[in-house]
Amino acid sequence: MPVVSDILHCDGHERITLAELAGYTTKPMPISGYNLKAPNMLFSTFRFFNGSAQIMNDAPGFEDSGWASLMITSAGVAGLIINSWILFKVLWQNAFGRSFGWIWVSRGIAYCCSSLMFTLFIGPGWYLYPKFLETDFGTVIYQTAIFASTLAIVSNLLIAANRCLLISIPFTYKEIFSERKTMAYIGLTWLFSIASIIIPFIIPACEDNSDGFVVYEKPSLDCSYIFQLVIFIAVWIAVMATLVADILAIYKINKMSKIRDALTSSQAESEVLRRGRERQLSMCYMIIVQSILCPMTMFSLCFGAAIPNNMLRFLLTDFLWALVDPIDGLVVIIFNKNMRTFNAFQPHSVHT
């Protein structure tokens, strides 16, 4: 397995690896005559970089980094278009109502922000200015993309919790997810995502000085180790809790539908209930698909760097990260009928 602190030598020049840009170390690293101190970036789950833009030069079909740049940029553009459409449907055509809609707005911002980083900076920079990845600004761009990915994960948890409580305890649901409380929950997801990036800047002792994946490190009471471990565990708890909440919601829907069918005598009323149940089931199945894809993607991003083939490593790490946004957006569109319709533009703001 490649050592994450390795520096690639290309054309006689010393180049920083993306692993170090992603936060494997905060030690000063000499690059082209100056020192770059790469800040900590999120958590070990997303530490999947083990090359630089120039590593593609060694892979068949990647004689220059143009193909890699085109693929990443294309994935970013696709994600931006798809998730902008979802955001449009939520904001201006009120696809998910008011309070629930605001959770989707937060989620949509996260996905659009991530796609925008790949479209405008990471993808083009891969080819037009490879040294972009070695700059402080390039590090900030990667931090922004990882922040957006974290926000998307915890937003999906909030969506799953919302649906689960609506189905399980409908009479107290509105109290738990009132408009004010919903905005507070959304604020907490943003605070968590921001804290996972910014705390090492505020508390220097929490800067990540390790040389590898957190689960392989020797346990210690250092702030750096504890911070990385807490974030690592928290994100995986969010992913698994999303899956559990959704499975529980599906179980409750099927159980309640049998009781309602037995008690409902009117065929018209039964049809209305059936359509409502199908909408909720579609939403739950959507979240389950996302909850399965998310850990699979995270495993690939974590361990794909160990693959010796450069092209395959690129596909399972950098390109897959860019591809996650359009895939997630397509899952939403496939499982939500109201996302697949294009009505005449009659805006119904989420505010109403």
Quick gist of this model?
Pfam families: 7TM_GPCR_Srx. This protein is mainly α and 352 residues long. It has helices spanning 18-21, 66-92, 99-128, 136-168, 170-176, 179-202, 223-263, 267-303, 310-316, 318-335, and strands at residues 8-10, 13-15, 29-31, 34-36.
Radius of gyration: 22 Å
What is the string of SSEs from the N terminus onward? Answer: EEHEEHHHHHHHHH
* Percentage of residues assigned to helices: 55-70%
How large is the count of helical segments? 10
Number of domains: 1
Q: Which range does the strand content fall in?
A: under 5%
- How far apart the termini lie comes to 54 Å
Number of strands: 4
CATH homologous superfamily designation: Rhodopsin 7-helix transmembrane proteins
CATH class: Mainly Alpha
Shape field: globular
CATH architectural type? Up-down Bundle
Q: What is the overall pLDDT average? A: 75
Biggest pleated-sheet summary:
2 strands, antiparallel
The side-by-side strand order for the widest beta sheet comes to 1-2
Q: What is the CATH T-level topology?
A: Rhopdopsin 7-helix transmembrane proteins
Domain G-protein coupled receptors family 1 profile: 147-294
Pfam families: 7TM_GPCR_Srx (PF10328)
Subcellular location: Membrane
Keywords: Membrane, Transmembrane, Transmembrane helix
